[in-house]
Specification:
By secondary structure, this protein is an alpha+beta fold. The protein has one domain: Peptide deformylase (Peptide Deformylase, Alpha-Beta Complex). Helices cover 21% and strands 34% of the residues. The strands form three sheets. Strands 1-2-3-6-7 form a five-stranded antiparallel sheet. Strands 4-5 form a two-stranded antiparallel sheet. A hairpin with a 5-residue loop joins strand 6 and strand 7. The longest helix is centred in the N-terminal third of the chain and has 15 residues. The chain is globular and about 45 Å long. Bound molecules: nickel (II) ion. The site of nickel (II) ion has 5 residues, from helix 2.
Length: 170
Amino acid sequence: MKSGTIALFGDPALRVKAKPVTAFHKKLHRTIDGMKAVLLAREDGAALAATQVGIPRRIVVIDYLGEYIEMINPVITGSSGESDDFEGCLSLPGFSGRVTRARQVTVTFQDRNGNPVTIEREGPMARCIQHEVDHLDGILFIDRMEDEFVFNTATKTKLVVKDLREATQS
Ligand code: NI
């Protein structure tokens, strides 16, 4: 995959289970900075997981609702409530689908220097975090959907979730 290219649905890279990061040095920082640049270049992006740029490591960058977060080896250690809402993915540009997720999450991770961090978020940010941690396990939001279609409101088109699931198996 070309550097800076985001894998699209159907790319086997999206089904890879990422390995933990164990070294918190220059190479990791370069990787994170590269991911940040890819994410910030996209107006439609809230977050990016390393698997989406062909890097099988447990790294997530989030730039959403005025907050920028880098998460290394994130683990959701607590959750509560339920929220039913639409979400999208940079790997399926323009489309969104309804997914039921926890309303609130506690997530523990490391920063780029390996320091442990624990945060709690709710609502849309909690949804975003759950979506991204899923990416690190090769899970896509369509896997969690109960509706039959994802929708693109700009082009007024829809895709069949079942077909997408088949197209993204690897
Ligand atoms: Ni995504």
